[in-house]
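User: structure tokens for this one?
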Amino acid sequence: MQVVSARDITEHNQSQEALQIKENRRRKQSQTLVQLARSKTFQQGDLNAALREITETAARTLLVKRVGVWLYNEERSKIECINLYDVNTKQHSFGNSFLKKNYPAYFQALEEECTIAVDDAINDTRTQELSECYLSVLGITSLLDVPIWLDGRLVGVVCNEHIGEGRQWTSEEETFAGSIADFVTLAIEASEQNVIQEALRQSEAQFRAIFECSSIGIGLIDMKAQIVDTNLALCKILGYSREELYGKRFTNYTLTQRGDFKLYKQLISGIYTDLKRTSRVGFHPSKHQEPFVERHRIEMERRCLHQNGSLVWTHISVSVIPGSNGEPEFFLAMIEDITERKQTELKLRASQEAAEAASLAKSEFLATMSHELRTPLNAIMGLSQLLQQQIVGSLNEKQNEYVSCIYSSGEHLLALINDVLDLSKVEAGKEELLLSPLSVSDLCNYAIWTVRDRALEKGLQLTCEIDLEEDICIADERRIKQMLLNLLTNAIKFTPAGQVSLVVKKVLSGITFTVSDTGIGIDSNQFQFLFEPFKQLDSQLNRQYEGTGLGLALTRKLAHLHGGDVTVTSTLGKGSQFTVFLPNPVYPGEEESGRGNNCSFSPSFSNPKTKRILLVEEEENTAILLQDYLQAIGYQVTWIDNGNDFLKQVQNLQPDLVFLDFHLVGDVSKWNLPNILRHEPSCKNLQIVIISSTEPPEQEITMLSGNANDYLIKPIRVVQLESILMRYLSNSDFKLNETPI
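Assistant:
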């Protein structure tokens, strides 16, 4: 008998089959993750390619119809699909988006839950907001959404979308979906790293291109002064190849100077000082490195030694490059070949020195010529004045006409000499202004009075108008008078008929003196020559009108010294307007002008025979003029031609007035000799007048009150001499007939 035992194992087989299926899925998921981990797509850093591979692999493994990767925008106001794979169409798409404000429940679940595993997506509170616009349209019944995290921050979600009957997600599937999200994170990191590396490669390539192509030599030097790298320009400057320079000391090729080593030490110490300062708040090389390079730099000009033995002038700029820890790591030397520029500078310097020497020679020549020309002028003008006064005998009408012509010619020649000297002094920068508050009406009266006779001779109407609230301007008295006289004289000279006017007005930033005439006018093409020395407008004017062309040139230069200018407007045949503009300077303190007003006198003296005059003069012509004239009008005059017996003569003669030649002071300082007399008891009240060939500088004029009483400039005019005599030898109650100047 055979006994057969039977057992129903259907349930067991089904259980085993289920376990096998589960194991197969787990194995498939593991193999998928290993395959993704080994994929070269991630190493390439191509985010789009990596996401395509991830979504396709996830769809095949989880057996879902759609897998999408959604990322937040920069404002985190929505999520946007950057890659979605559809199994049915086998295509990838992108561009859809969900606004956070329209789906608050879904976005809240996304931020709070590790995994959103939804079996019934239409009715689940977390996803039902998506039903009408998205889930129902596509037939999606179940969702498995896993957040994407990057550096601890939620950046998006991986959506696994099931279409058909509802599906229950297993824990293994949720774990796998989480791993897929991690791979998306790795893909994003790899992409960002690739972008950074690509930018770094481009930056390095650009730097290398700049480094190699720069026309300025560049050297990278370590802290031991050894050359680490050079560009071609530096190799050319020094005459060595890159290989020959590598590892050599940079200082071997530069001619250092005393103190250079100290400069390098200060450069490095500055980095350490800043490093200690920034370490208190934490050091970030990327933020601090650039300011270090900007602040810590030395620049110098040094000669470098070329390979052929020649010396090359260079401009060297050395900066410190800190390392990642902020400490000095390299010197960056920028070296520019300036040999050509240096040679040009040397040529320019030589030219400048030659020009200065020529200018000095010109000044010395003019000074010498001035003295040589003034010496005969002293005799010409002085003696002609004596003849005019008929001291040595009467003159007939024709003789008097000749003498007047001689004197006026001397006056013209003297004016020319003065203009040349003034222009030379201004161009040499040796003219100094003595600014002081001046009465505008006095200046205008002086100028109009001086040129009045010339205007009357030509029948011209001469007018003056002053439109000012305050009758004050700030200027150098002598120079402003000179400018006004130059312009008025020119206006009268070039105006055959009509009128000449002087108008003074206050403008916003200064004061203007405008001289207008109704004369011949000037062609606008000739304006460029007006203010050039020794130039007149054309040959016809040269023949018709006398002059050298210095007046306007000197006037403009004097105006420039005041900070102003001279401008001109003119119409040919109708007249011209020249305007002197003087700006408003800082108002100086009240200063005495240093010179008294010129005065005109009638030669009326009281008992001149009782007055003694000592004349100390080396020029015979000047001495004869003064001695003859002074004796003719009744003074007792003693003349000596040197200063050796000066003190003795003063003590013996006890003179009332001394005329002392500026050049006859011997080895004693020019202003010290009169000062010595002041300390002689018998000479304390002695009147001393200095005679000079040129006007003393302003600083010496101010010393007159303490040493000499006054000065006379050669050639001496009778009216000036009479002024001195009346001032110092007349009775105390005599009143001067002053004319404002």
